[in-house]
Amino acid sequence: MRDFVDVFRADLAAVGAPTDDETVWRLLRRFQILVFDFVSLGSDYEHRARERARFALTADQANRGSELWPVLIEDAGACARAGGTLDYPAVVNALQTQHGFRFEKRVDLRPVDARLSEDADHALDETKDEVGGVRLARTQLIDQACS
């Protein structure tokens, strides 16, 4: 935790913000810090990751989900050490050719996204912008939400 606070303080300093204890505390108390403990023996997070890996594979390879997770960790570490980036097709291609994993077809969520966007637009259109006879200036907020 101290390392986290030190990094946070250094990040504040890098942008010229105050780094005194009071400022750091005022900012950090507004955060919700999520801890993902993958390295502890019997970590539930690792179990969840292996379980989710099962669902990425074809049904006949679902039993290989526990094999996929350590391969992903190793490949991500190698890519990070080399300062590289990989896109989805490159990752999948490497996993298929080097390890024989077969993946389910990715679900196209664009129609779902379009529907959610449309529903959000309707909700914004129906939201009243007048309270007690006073018109609220919210067009800037709506524009920000839409961009």
Radius of gyration: 23 Å
Spatial strand arrangement across the major sheet = 1-2
- Name the average pLDDT: 84
Question: Number of helical runs?
Answer: 7
Q: Give the low-pLDDT segments.
A: none
Overall, the morphology is extended
Got a strand count? 2
Report on this structure:
The chain is mostly helical. Among the domains are: 44-99, no CATH class; 110-146. The protein is built from seven helices and two strands; from the N terminus they run ααααααββα. The chain has helices at residues 2-14, 21-28, 44-56, 65-81, 88-99, 110-126, 139-146; strands spanning 130-131, 134-135. Strands 1-2 form a two-stranded antiparallel ribbon. Helix 3 (44-56) crosses helix 4. The chain starts with a helix and ends with a helix. The model has no long low-confidence stretch (mean pLDDT 84).
Task: Give a short overview.
By secondary structure, the chain is mainly alpha-helical. Helix content is 60%, strand content 3%.
Features:
147 residues, 3% strand, 2 strands, mainly alpha, 7 helices
Task: Note the topology.
Layout: H1 2-14, H2 21-28, H3 44-56, H4 65-81, H5 88-99, H6 110-126, E1 130-131, E2 134-135, H7 139-146
Helix pairs in contact: 3-4
